[in-house]
Design goal:
Elements (H helix, E strand, L loop, with lengths): L1 E4 L3 H10 L3 E7 L2 E7 L1 E4 L2 E6 L4 H8 L2 E14 L8 E17 L2 H15 L8 H6 L1 E17 L8
Antiparallel strand pairs: 1-8, 2-3, 2-6, 4-5, 5-8, 6-7, 7-8
């Protein structure tokens, strides 16, 4: 079984949007901190939301550099059932590296809340003014994007 790079942006975005949760990694004083988050894609940015306080908020204000992971699939595969080193989880994974920007503009926050809700529902939503003002919206501009498929079938002349 092989690990393959995924280059097609449409396939990468399909992996991301098929997930319900992403994992946001940050660093505070060289110590890692990871949180599961709801998300949405907005062009070349990842949108996240949270309270406007707490450990994540404090870390991002000091160090906005982040990494975000999406992983799709958990099927166990092996080349030889008797050989432990031949086992692999068949999955696809996407990593984004970027810089977190806190969005304060009311109209942009409202728009991004609509984008977030479209990730999870086809319904139209309205947000009242206090809700928009009190939610924290984080926009991560994608600087680096990589994707891989793990546990892919090895291509040989006799099975291609």
């Amino acid at each position: 079984m092989r690990t393959l790079f995924i280059e097609d942006r449409n396939e990468i975005e399909k992996i991301m949007t098929s997930c319900k949760t992403c994992y946001l990694a940050m660093a505070e004083d060289n110590l890692p901190y990871v949180l599961p988050m709801n998300f949405a894609l907005d062009g070349d940015s990842v949108i996240l939301h949270s309270a406007q306080s707490g450990r994540m908020w404090e870390i991002l204000q000091k160090n906005p550099n982040v990494c975000i992971n999406w992983t799709l699939g958990e099927e166990l595969k092996w080349q030889d059932v008797r050989v432990g080193c031949s086992y692999r989880v068949k999955s696809k994974s996407v990593l984004v590296e970027g810089e977190a920007l806190i969005i304060d503009d009311y109209d942009e926050k409202y728009r991004l809340l609509e984008v977030l809700m479209r990730q999870y529902s086809d319904r139209k939503f309205k947000f009242n003014k206090p809700a928009v003002k009190n939610v924290g919206i984080i926009k991560v501009k994608i600087k680096k994007l990589t994707a891989k498929e793990f546990g892919a079938k090895a291509v040989t002349p006799w099975n291609s």
